[in-house]
Amino acid sequence: MGQTRFANGRQLDLICLGRLGVDLYAQQVGARLEDVSSFAKYLGGSSANIAFGTARLGLKSAMLSRVGDDHMGRFLLESLAREGCDVSGITVDPQRLTALVLLGIKDRETFPLVFYRENCADMALRAEDIAESFIASSKSLLITGTHFSTEGVYNASVQALDYAEKHQVRRVLDIDYRPVLWGLAGKADGETRFVADQQVSAHVQKILPRFDLIVGTEEEFLIAGGSTDLLAALRRVRELTAATLVVKLGPQGCTVIHGAIPARLEDGAIYPGVRVEVLNVLGAGDAFMAGFLSGWLEGADDEQCCRLANACGGLVVSRHACAPAMPTRAELDYLFSSPVPITRPDQDLLLQRLHQVSVPRKSWKQLFIFAFDHRGQLVELAQQGGRDPACISHLKQLFIQAVERVEADLQDQGVAADIGLLADQRFGQDALNAATGRGWWVARPVEVQGSRPLAFEHGRSIGSNLIGWPREQIIKCLVQYHPDDEPMLRLEQEAQILGLYQASQVSGHELLLEIIPPKDHPSSHPDVLYRALKRLYNLGIFPAWWKIEAQSAEEWQRLDALIQERDPYCRGVVLLGLNAPAEALAEGFRQARSSSTCRGFAVGRTIHHEPSRAWLAGEIDDEGLIRAVQAIFVQLIDAWREARA
User: Which residues form the Carbohydrate kinase PfkB domain (predicted)?
Assistant: First the structure.
């Protein structure tokens, strides 16, 4: 392929115009849609998936569509923005709801889906929504076929094409033929992929000459060409446009046609697909397009564009969902560098891990975390004060108010930091509910307090408990672990930790491991903490976070080197307090000042023990407690900042 020329100096690589809705995927694979009991919520819509996928692959992509002024619309905006996609071209429609789709995975050939799109927001896109300056800011514009299916979206798409041609923006068509969205199949029949219709063919053919690149499946080129014979359809398309044609051939791969249509597709270059075990074909085409465009927009040749496209499609068909299943560059590099074909991506542990850790994640600044996940200690204080332990729930809600005040103080001072908390489910559920959804770092414990060997509060089936957790909440697990423990104890604890880590990989929650070697352990071997972390890494356990005691500056250097060598994706280390005096913690902060992995502190009893005792004893009221907790929390923050100054 001759290298496509793109205009220079453009802010964006790609604008995607088209469907933007919510996919609700059945979680029970093999069930009829009628029998499904739960769904997972993902960003969806062909254009949106492509915008999402190209952003994940490093392109500067943008979305041009509408969403409703509703919870699902906000979810879509946040999902795209979090991935790095420009959402300035998305209009919030106060009159219509965001589109929804229900999807199931019955077997390898059956994928029922039902579109809930009547009078939905993205189909209300109008010509006046299209800003000329926005289109002119991009190298390319992609439009999917659905957005030519009604008069309103047709006019909007044509307006975008007019601006694109005026400003030398390359135009891409994803034919994306869904008969149900053209009124050619039953309302609940979203699965049917081809219904011949000459009116639709004639309608599509009107816009074919306006594109530089046209991509579709065999069935989609049949509708575009108005024939049930693929070669005849391609020849008709070629009569109408000189565009590069990319024909997707399913598991066989794809072919790229620049000039005349060959007598047989096999006479041209067929770029083979990636052989994988298929779970879900829905979204494979969107992943293919994202991969192809990631090469095309960077000037790659046909072979490389198709290699990227086929790899992206192959990975997505092996996973649940579409947009969240899109691969990163790190995943593709790993796939391409593998000495043997990876036919079961779902069983490749490193690939699974890369899919979690190499995607865009919230960036945390220095972390100031108030840990009040204590249970037994607060029960003892309540009993000493003659109070019903049930009041601890209210106590922890007061802690939230203290955290709010500390955050407000930091913002007033212009301090670049993030606030966090650790709270338990037993007494802190209301506090967790109040903290979630506001951008705080939030974690909750799973261990039975004081257990050794490690036990979980809700039994061994930790994964079933995580189902009910908000995804943003971090799993915190304290383990009294020593690498020189008696073998049976060590192996039992390691099995529990490994099981927890694997459960976190499935649920998508980040894991924080708090490692506290027992103080009364008979072993006198040095470097206990260093060896403990190294041992867990050797077992294939890679927590997002570590929580450890204060270390010397020299030991921090060794720990930094270990973490950077074994897990460059580690989110960092936070210092625990162990009820140490503030002065002792300040010294620990100073020792960690040069650490590249220590991100902050997570301190509890040093902050809340005395205020809690006084409140439970009736010596101070709610406001007194809030002020006391706030003062100690601020004192520790000041000590941290002074150590890092």
Answer: 13-328
